[in-house]
Amino acid sequence: MTNQQEYLYRRVLAGWGLLALGAVLFAAGLILQLLFVVPFNARIVSGLGIFFVVLGLGRVMRYRTMRSNRQAVARLINEKHDERNHLIRGQAGSRAFWVSLAMTYAALMWLSFASSGSLPIATPDGLWYYLAAAVIVPFIVYAGSILYDEKYS
Amino acid sequence: MKNHLEEMRDHKRLTQQDLADLVNVSRQTIISLEHGRYNPSIILAFRLARVFGVAVEELFIYSEEENHD
Fold first, then answer.
1. Range of the structural domain that residue B19 is part of
2. Which residues, in sequence order, are CB contacts of A153 under 8 Å at separation 6+?
3. pTM of the entire structure?
């Protein structure tokens, strides 16, 4: 098996894995919803299953259609190992990491001061929005950084 | 870093994608190199020089002023 075939084989296999995981989660969600009383909405599990099925199906279709096009596979592998891409992603990851660290540190400081009465105690809703932002903002920084560097570097 | 990549590529009648395929990088990397926006690794510099059959110094122009900290 050549490197290209092995690369494709592994990608397709990962796609099938995601598809299987999605199917299992979808079925588990349905079973939980219909047969058991659970303290959460079982549709979350089914929804996650559908997400994985779509992701897996996309991967399987994308990489299976590439099997007959050796040049496309070679370019895909080149893209993956491209040193400039690695640099851009590394820098984006670093920026996102520092933003994430700063946001987590700010939350820690707030809670510390709040416990001593210097600042108001965070409400559960406020904390939820802040934690959601702590997930989304670093991702935006990561994606934005990649887009910027792809264009200007 | 300035370079003669575009002239040499044109001279060899290669497209950016052809050159990218020859040195195993993306076309975007070749574009960035040609515009002087990206400095290649030593390995990529040697690969490119080998494609054109020249020394690395003939392909890339190192300038002390441009690269001082």
1. 2-67
2. A84, A87, A88, B32, B37, B38
3. 0.79
